[in-house]
Amino acid sequence: MKVKELAELIDARLHLGTCSGDSEISQVHASDTMSDLIEHAAADTLLLTTLNNNQLIRVAELMDVPGICLVSGADPLPELLARACAARTAILVSPTGMEETCRLLEAHSGSLKVTRT
Amino acid sequence: MITLSYRILGGDFDSAGLATRKLKEQLAKIGVGAPVMRRAMIASYEAEMNVVIHARTGTLWARLDEEKLDLEVTDEGPGIPDVQLALREGWSTASSQARQMGFGAGLGLPNIRKNSDLFDIETRVGRGTRIRSTILLGTRDDGGASPPVPAFLSLDHGRCRACLRCIFACPTAALRVHRSLPVMLNELCVGCTACTAECADGVFGIGDPDTGRAAVTRGFGAALPPVPPDAVLVLPRGFLAGFPLEGSPARVLAALQETGFADIRLVEEWEQALRREARARAASGKGALPLIPPFCPAVVALVESRFPSLIPHLGPWLSPLEAAGEEFPLRPVFLVAACGAQYSAACRTSLTDRLTVLSPARLAGALLPGLARKPAAAPTASAGTGGEPAPGPGELAVTGVRHVMRVLSEAEAGALGGATLLDLSLCDGGCAGSPLLCADPFISMHRWQAAPIGAAPSDAAAVPRQKPYAQRHGVRLDKDMGEAIRRLARIDALARTLPGRDCGACGAPSCATFAEDVVMGRSEADGCPHLPEHGEETQ
């Protein structure tokens, strides 16, 4: 599933920056700890988190992550958006909380693997 | 064996992870495979964050040889009172600031251990900690076969005075002057003609991509092959307006018609068709933005070699001259390439003898008799183009090597704001600025605007590209990673002994490129006249 299709599925706001939103996502990993996020990060993985800081982008940059999804309608910090743009990582903002977003993803998508730690 | 080292500042969450990112860039350069890269990044990042979270300062060391990557992170910090406890998942002494940012879950050290083939930790309370992680390389990513290296330019060695201006002009450091003779590193050349523009002696010409032999130098070159009766000629407007003759550009067109071409078309028609298509795509938001349409094949080569992360931004079409070659499937077509990059691109497309690619000088040679006579009446081209379209909203039109390099760097950093379409050309003033055309681009534009040739509506269309763009590995030191590591180490060691004046006396544009040349066997080690053994003190 493409990043932008996934955003539509969970009704997320999409900050594409310089990305096309066409990157393929086959896994979503949800966590609030950096170690978990980097351990599960990959070029086909969307990270889902309640965190909202610049280190998310560093992890994305190191692991070639195509997209990060913030939850509960959080406003991404302007610097986070700027860094995401430079790292070519899409930022999604889901209007619902982490649990609900995971549930939506699990319910709607057959091929997508959703994990949580 | 090569050793890289990066400083880490304790408590600096803003630049935390930067050392690991720099390490990633170096590892990518020598072609470390994806699985090793992944483990190295996790181990290195976790170890770096340990320093940021707990210590005052630290250093990340990476030692690479053919078999393994050794990461070592040393710090000046509080040390770990109970290592066994620290290695247990969930145990942490991180500050609340770190915890708020998602750190301090007690998974850092276990993560490093999990991703290491060998793991070791030494710590002294009140002094600091040293973490070592070894990752066996095993797999290697050779990045697939590199596309064939195009030979864009030919060199006429006899004309070179070894003035060294070209080596400093080349944006990709592809030129050297060795023993007073110019040498082109074809794998680095993007065909931008910066050297040609800089060279007052006419050393550079268009090269034949198959044989590497000069298709033509700046002289008039070989005579035109016979022109079949239904032949089409496609040429740049800058050619027609490039002659300082009364009645030009119409007079040039008349002389061309005398050479027997049934149709004479301007390549700008396909350029405008490509622009229309690109604008529609950029407006639709489809694909990576900003879109970089392939107006200039040298820009494409530059992206493929120096800015590979922008490859997805290249528009999926043929360049205008290539598209023109596809337009008339049943007729013989003569294409006039304004530069080496266009020449190479057009030659690669022309799989049949239906296409003939000419340099401007070769066509000019055939025109001389016709140009000597003044035309009776002003002729018209089969089709033409109007003036240059003004850049639309979100479009950034940039010409000239230095500006284009800067814009691509900014695009790579995502710092171009709302730009949706980059109209880039490596020659100053666009294709009309190619040094292989006769006139300055501003003068030829002035001539054209003063006496434009009537234009019929054009049916030119953008042509989709079949062959995907691919990264050029011109900068890789060796296909074998072990050898690449050894070479990188030797280059680094040698560069440290050089004076850093970048004077060009060795024939390379900088001390760093000279060090690379020596290690790659392209230059002799005694080529630097400023080293002490040559009798001059280094400063």
Helix proportion of chain B? 25-40%
Mean pLDDT of chain B: 83
Question: Helical region count of chain A?
Answer: 5
Strand element count of chain A: 6
Task: Indicate the CATH class of chain A.
Answer: Alpha Beta
Please outline what is shown here:
The complex is a heterodimer of chains A (117) and B (539). Chain A has 5 helices and 6 strands, in the order H-E-E-H-E-H-E-H-E-H-E.
Report on the structure:
Chain A has 117 residues and is an alpha/beta fold. Chain A has a single domain, classed as Udp-n-acetylmuramoylalanyl-d-glutamate--2,6- Diaminopimelate Ligase, Chain: A, domain 1 (3-Layer(aba) Sandwich), CATH 3.40.1390. Chain A has five helices and six strands. Chain A has helices at residues 3-9, 34-40, 55-63, 78-87, 98-108, and strands at 13-15, 27-30, 45-49, 67-70, 90-93, 113-116. In chain A, helix 4 (78-87) links the parallel strand 4 and strand 5 (90-93). Chain A is globular and about 35 Å long. Chain A starts with a helix and ends with a strand. The mean pLDDT of chain A is 92. Helix content of chain B is 33%, strand content 16%. The model of chain B is unreliable at 139-150, 208-221 and 534-539 (pLDDT under 50). Chain B is of the alpha/beta class and 539 residues long. In chain B, strand 4 and strand 5 form a beta hairpin. Among the domains of chain B are: 2-136, Histidine kinase-like ATPase, C-terminal domain (Heat Shock Protein 90, 2-Layer Sandwich); 481-505 and 515-534, no CATH class.
Tags for this model:
heterodimer, A: 117 residues, alpha/beta, Udp-n-acetylmuramoylalanyl-d-glutamate--2,6- Diaminopimelate Ligase, Chain: A, domain 1, 6 strands, B: 539 residues, Heat Shock Protein 90, five-stranded antiparallel beta sheet, 18 helices, 16% strand
